[in-house]
Amino acid sequence: MTSWRPERIVIGTIGRAHGLDGSFYLNGYGGAVPIEPGMALRVGEHDAVAQGRKGTTDRPVLRIDLAHDRSAAEALRGLEVTVDAALLPPLDEDEYLHVDLIGCSVVAQERDLGRVTAVHEYPANDVLELDGGEMIPFVEEVVLELDIPGRRIVVSDEVLSED
Description:
6-stranded antiparallel β-barrel
């Protein structure tokens, strides 16, 4: 495992309940880790086991051992669902995951702009959110260098002129 990845990776948050059996929508699921029945998960601070999965790839519906009815699923709403980072698929040399960008330092003209705290997916492109609240488009015209092992992202000088 890479040294910059946390031990657990957020794969989504519990959304609204679906049906009466404790199933719920998993919001924000990106699909990097396939969810199968019997898979170990953590919901908030509680260990859980996936008991069922249906729905679509983009909007899965899960059933876990912590929620046996609709009200129990609703009580978990908003909690993060995490998996062991070892479950992430191997990547090619020039590939990375959003989690790999979190914590990277962002610089322009050797000026430190901050660290990446989140990556937001929008229809046009992804956007890096920095610890000071700044938002940087994650596009080829802006991101000049991406050094994940070095934990550094170099962006165009034009980002400075937008201040």
